[in-house]
């Protein structure tokens, strides 16, 4: 480690208890520096998994803020608590049975509580990914699967939206359903893929594979070095 | 916004700024063959013999592995077999899956498709279901589905990329199954980027001769993983989270018959008896091989290698590790994350703490990485960050000087945004980089159906070896866990449908391992598997009382 | 009335995008034909579907105010709704904000980082536009609805409370006037301003069935071929709950009839009681 004495030390409060930690750490690494070993509340450490949802308040600020512990720098006078689990109800379904083209609003059918949305926008303010959460809930309410899927695409399932919602909406489960509906029903299937699968079923590559598997390393090397790149035409 | 650089780094930046005008338009000379070889030999982690150790126990005795892994393989078990009562079975299942990332989730889904009832499956995972490197993969997934492409071409690209060290049967399976996997994802509703006709938008990747990389925005792994997990939840397959396996169980005759799990919150153990067990624990990035930062998630600590090896599965290609030359080194929030090669292509130069050039920006990847390491640890000319990491500057503002103002923002918008979040404006200040540990190329030996040489045990995903040989191509790991997760799930199901319940559960192989260690004269205080990396502050650990408090 | 240069800024509401898509489709076609197309707002929010009347309940006004704010931020002052419920909720919430500056201030405090709502937007129902375009409508009638006996149904939301009514609360004629332009026979029916049972349809179907039976029985007595209205909830109730009635009178959106008289086919897809029989003389 670098000489800690040279660095600026700041005070943070973990569930009320004060710790002195070096400036420039994330909330996650500051807690570790202070002596916490994560079991819960830590996942990818790179802003992809949503395991480290954290609620904090800064001194002299009345607002509670929300962010990911691994993506937020620690600041002097931060009061911190982690929320590593959100017990939000999820509806099970069979993807084959939920064609949005056959029903008025599949999203509302599975998550009727979205009709309780009063547009307070607390969800969007809680989102560490800056997703317009309220807007996608509103889109879901009117059965707009495409918009719900697109607006929610960056969702990490951290659950902060659902923890804050006064209407008890399960935003991220709703959004997951919408994205799968788009992927399965709204997006067209690839005809190129269909063709390739048919070719594979007909076994048209079997012989080539056999030849390739029989090759010596030198023969393979020659093939590899002589291969043509697509961008070269 | 506060300055993202502390004072001591700011002082070094001033030096970088001073030399910038002299460096415009100049390029550091490329290394000759001799120097390249020397810098690789002395500084590239894969070439450093002191970074590797010969294994003295187990099925791959005599082969080399990174010291950090060897240490775990040469440690006694975390548990004392005498303290465990195996007669009381907590979960009696057809299939036990160890690991809740991509490979484990895919295996479970295909076991169900193969006819195993969901309640006869148990997926046990160390963190939450989905916490994995699968979730973090950004780039894409390879599958040859364009007319100009073919599975054969995919095979050729991958075997060349792997320096012709790949297991050919595994690679055939990988490339041949790829389109089927895409079809399956299509049915599940994975939101891939498509053109207006519904065909996939595909990009080239390093070492691919065709545009073959399918993606879902910048979040390909996350999109695939969350859809798989969603489907898994629809099927109501039982999951135990925060319950890692700590050892496999065997019948005493070399057959795996289940595993011992541990509740990470209560330290209580659970005995699982299973007709088939699938190891899907991922890789070893969090061992920080040779102290490298990593792109890997918190739980990537090689548990599956350790347990599988003790149960008798040999390892392969453990001597090669995938590093990327420029990972972010500061701020801590992004350490280890990739800084794309494009930054150097556009003209940014690597410079040291005094603002001096020391390497051509576009040397081959391994040479570039080694030269950066040499600057930091061979010449002590690196910049130290507040967390004690070292790195060199990538002088990004040069890009605008060379190509005109606004180029950086125009060509690298996502990176600019990422650094801005932490008070760093890469259009005005340089960014700090250091090579980062990315992927475990090798692993447990498997057959094309996902079975290991040990009966009753299957393996898939990063924990397994052979598919990629000594170097994996971009876009083949997301594919790997799908192809071999599926194969392992199906093969495990077939075995479970035929086999009766295992007659015996034992930890005899652990006793044998302890004996082997004694015979080899190894005496260590360490135990393994490690389960979680240690990041607590030094001062706290020095004063840490090793006692447990009970109510 | 002030107008957008190329049409009217339009607030759909959720139901128009799902169950009442016939109403949206026919209204869009009619307005297009009239040269004043409906331009959907860039962003909008569910109105809340029920106007909260409690004097201290500001929270439930917020969704409506957000929609007003969207119009304001889009640079428009006039907003058109089709759904009666949306019209009523938006109009009342807007009025409240205009008339109670202290509540508007509280609202703007809560909106926080969003821009303040300035209280300048006006909410209109599409029928109000038609009232101002009688000549244009008349010109477009290609297939007069000669001989079609139409009973109008207003329900509650267009007329009550009095201060948001689009017409005379007790004796509205706005629909009759339009139908007359289309050439239909209109029958003034005393049940046309009575409640259909509204949201009781969710858990007290019996209440709605009784209300609907009274309304359609009187319409049948008056010789109605079809019933015309604009509220999607009334449409659903009158249409669906006739399943227990001896009567089977098709329940149409006024704009579906307008489209028909303009020589276009629009909507007519989601009706439980198929209207095609009653309309066969006017369909191709």
Task: Please describe what this structure looks like.
The complex is a heterotrimer of chains A (233), B (551) and C (284). Chain A has 233 residues and is of the alpha+beta class. Chain A has 2 domains: 4-82, Beta-grasp domain (Ubiquitin-like (UB roll), Roll), CATH 3.10.20.30; 95-186, Fumarate Reductase Iron-sulfur Protein, Chain B, domain 2, CATH 1.10.1060.10. Helices cover 36% and strands 12% of the residues of chain A. Chain A has helices at 27-33, 106-110, 122-126, 133-141, 145-151, 160-164, 171-186, 191-202, 206-214, 217-226, and strands at residues 9-14, 17-22, 53-58, 65-68, 78-82. Chain B has helices at residues 7-23, 33-43, 67-73, 102-113, 133-136, 151-161, 168-188, 220-234, 303-310, 342-345, 365-378, 397-403, 407-411, 413-420, 477-498, 508-519, 538-542; strands at residues 52-54, 64-66, 91-98, 121-124, 141-142, 202-203, 213-214, 239-240, 245-250, 256-262, 269-279, 315-316, 321-328, 349-351, 383-384, 390-395, 431-440, 443-445, 457-459, 464-465. In chain B, helix 4 packs across helix 15. The mean pLDDT of chain B is 93. Chain C is an alpha/beta fold and 284 residues long. Chain C folds into 2 domains: 8-126, Up-down Bundle (Glutathione S-transferase Yfyf (Class Pi), Chain A, domain 2), CATH 1.20.1050.140; 133-261, Rossmann fold (3-Layer(aba) Sandwich). Classes of the chains: A alpha+beta (233), B alpha/beta (551), C alpha/beta (284). Chains in contact: A-B, A-C. At the A-B interface, helix 1, helix 7, helix 8, helix 9 and helix 10 of A face helix 5, helix 6, helix 7, helix 8 and helix 17 of B.
């Amino acid at each position: 480690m670098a000489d800690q004495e040279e660095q600026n030390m700041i005070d943070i409060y973990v569930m009320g208890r004060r710790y002195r930690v070096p400036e420039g750490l994330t909330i996650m690494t500051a807690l570790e520096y202070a002596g916490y070993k994560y079991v819960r509340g830590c996942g990818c450490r790179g802003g992809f998994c949503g395991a480290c949802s954290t609620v904090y308040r800064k001194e002299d600020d009345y607002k509670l803020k929300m962010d990911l512990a691994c993506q937020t720098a620690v600041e002097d006078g931060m009061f911190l608590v982690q929320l590593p689990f959100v017990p939000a109800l999820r509806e099970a379904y069979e993807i084959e049975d939920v064609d949005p083209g056959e029903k008025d609003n599949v999203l509302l059918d599975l998550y009727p509580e979205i009709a309780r949305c009063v547009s307070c926008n607390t969800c969007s303010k809680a989102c560490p990914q800056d997703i317009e959460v309220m807007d996608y809930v509103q889109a879901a309410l009117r059965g707009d699967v495409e918009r719900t899927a697109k607006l929610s695409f960056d969702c990490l399932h951290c659950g902060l939206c659902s923890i804050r919602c006064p209407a008890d909406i399960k935003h991220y489960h709703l959004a997951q359903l919408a994205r799968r509906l788009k992927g399965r029903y709204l997006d067209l299937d690839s005809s190129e893929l269909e063709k390739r699968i048919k070719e594979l079923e007909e076994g048209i590559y079997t012989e080539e594979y056999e030849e390739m598997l029989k090759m010596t390393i030198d023969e393979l090397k020659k093939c590899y070095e002589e291969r043509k790149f697509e961008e070269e035409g | 916004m506060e300055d993202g650089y502390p004072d001591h780094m700011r002082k070094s930046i001033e030096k970088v700024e001073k030399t910038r005008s002299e460096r415009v338009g100049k390029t550091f000379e490329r290394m000759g063959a001799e120097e390249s070889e020397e810098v690789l030999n002395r500084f590239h982690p894969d070439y450093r013999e002191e970074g590797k150790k010969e294994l003295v126990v187990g099925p791959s005795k005599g082969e080399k592995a990174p010291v950090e892994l060897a240490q775990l393989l040469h440690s006694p078990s975390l548990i004392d077999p005498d303290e465990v009562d195996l007669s009381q079975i907590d979960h009696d299942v057809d299939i036990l899956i160890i690991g809740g990332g991509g490979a484990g989730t895919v295996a479970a889904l295909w076991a169900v498709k193969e006819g195993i009832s969901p309640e006869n499956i148990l997926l046990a995972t160390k963190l939450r279901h989905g916490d994995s490197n699968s979730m973090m993969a950004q780039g894409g997934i390879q599958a040859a589905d364009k007319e100009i492409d073919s599975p054969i071409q995919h095979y050729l690209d991958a075997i060349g990329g792997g320096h012709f060290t790949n297991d050919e049967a595994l690679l055939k399976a990988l490339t041949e199954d790829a389109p089927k996997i895409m079809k399956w994802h299509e049915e599940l509703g994975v939101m891939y980027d498509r053109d207006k006709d519904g065909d996939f938008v595909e990009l080239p990747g390093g070492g691919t001769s065709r545009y073959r990389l399918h993606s879902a925005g910048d979040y390909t792994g996350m999109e695939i993983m969350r859809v798989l997990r969603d489907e898994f939840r629809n099927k109501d397959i039982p999951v135990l989270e925060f319950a890692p396996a700590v050892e496999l169980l065997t019948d005493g005759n070399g057959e795996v018959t289940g595993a011992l799990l541990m509740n990470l919150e209560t330290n209580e153990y659970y005995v699982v008896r299973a007709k088939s067990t699938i190891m899907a624990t991922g890789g070893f990035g969090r061992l920080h091989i040779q102290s490298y930062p990593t792109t890997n998630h918190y739980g990537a600590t090689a548990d599956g290698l350790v347990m599988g090896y003790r149960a008798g599965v040999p390892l392969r290609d453990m001597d090669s590790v995938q590093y990327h030359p420029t990972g972010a080194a500061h701020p801590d929030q992004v350490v280890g994350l990739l800084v794309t090669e494009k930054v150097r292509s556009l003209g940014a130069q690597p410079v040291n703490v005094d603002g001096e050039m020391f390497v051509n920006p576009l040397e081959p990847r391994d040479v570039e990485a080694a030269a950066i390491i040499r600057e930091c640890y061979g010449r002590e000319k690196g910049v130290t960050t507040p967390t004690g990491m070292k790195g060199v500057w990538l002088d990004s503002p040069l890009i605008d000087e060379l190509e005109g103002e606004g180029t950086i923002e125009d060509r690298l918008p996502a990176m600019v945004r990422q650094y801005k979040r932490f008070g760093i404006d890469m259009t005005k200040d340089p960014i700090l980089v250091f090579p980062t540990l990315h992927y475990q190329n090798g692993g447990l030996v498997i057959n094309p159906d996902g079975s290991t040489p040990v009966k009753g045990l299957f393996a898939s995903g990063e924990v397994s070896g052979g598919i990629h040989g000594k170097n994996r191509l971009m876009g083949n790991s997301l594919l790997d866990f799908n192809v071999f997760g599926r194969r392992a799930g199906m093969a495990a199901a077939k075995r479970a449908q035929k086999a009766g319940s295992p007659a015996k559960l034992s930890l005899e192989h652990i006793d044998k391992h302890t004996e082997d260690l004694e015979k080899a004269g190894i005496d260590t205080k360490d135990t393994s598997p490690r389960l979680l990396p240690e990041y607590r502050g030094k001062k706290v650990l020095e004063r840490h009382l090793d006692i447990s408090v009970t109510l | 009335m002030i107008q957008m240069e190329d049409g009217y800024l339009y607030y759909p509401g959720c139901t128009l995008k799902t169950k009442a898509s016939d109403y949206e489709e026919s209204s869009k076609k009619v307005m297009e034909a009239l040269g004043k197309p409906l331009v959907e707002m860039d962003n909008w929010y569910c109105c809340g579907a029920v106007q909260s009347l409690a004097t201290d309940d500001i929270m439930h006004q917020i969704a409506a105010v957000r929609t007003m704010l969207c119009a304001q931020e889009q640079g428009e002052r006039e907003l058109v709704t089709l759904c009666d419920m949306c019209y009523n909720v938006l109009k009342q919430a807007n009025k409240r904000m205009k008339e109670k500056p202290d509540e508007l201030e509280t609202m703007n405090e809560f909106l926080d980082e969003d821009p303040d709502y300035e209280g300048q937007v006006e909410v209109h129902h599409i029928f109000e536009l038609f009232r101002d375009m009688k000549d244009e409508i008349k010109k477009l009638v290609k297939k007069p609805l000669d001989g079609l006996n139409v009973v109008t149904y207003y329900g509650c939301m267009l007329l009550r409370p009095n201060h948001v009514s689009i017409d005379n609360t007790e004796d509205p004629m706005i629909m009759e006037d339009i139908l007359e332009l289309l050439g239909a026979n209109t029958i003034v029916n005393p049940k046309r301003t009575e409640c259909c049972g509204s949201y009781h349809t969710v858990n007290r179907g019996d209440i709605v069935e009784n209300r609907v039976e009274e309304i359609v029985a009187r319409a049948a007595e008056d010789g109605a071929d079809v019933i015309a209205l604009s509220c999607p909830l009334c449409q659903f109730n009158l249409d669906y709950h006739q399943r227990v009635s001896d009567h089977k009178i098709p329940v149409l959106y006024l704009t579906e009839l307008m489209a028909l008289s303009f020589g276009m086919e629009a909507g007519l897809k989601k009706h439980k009681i198929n209207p095609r029989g009653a309309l066969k003389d006017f369909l191709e």
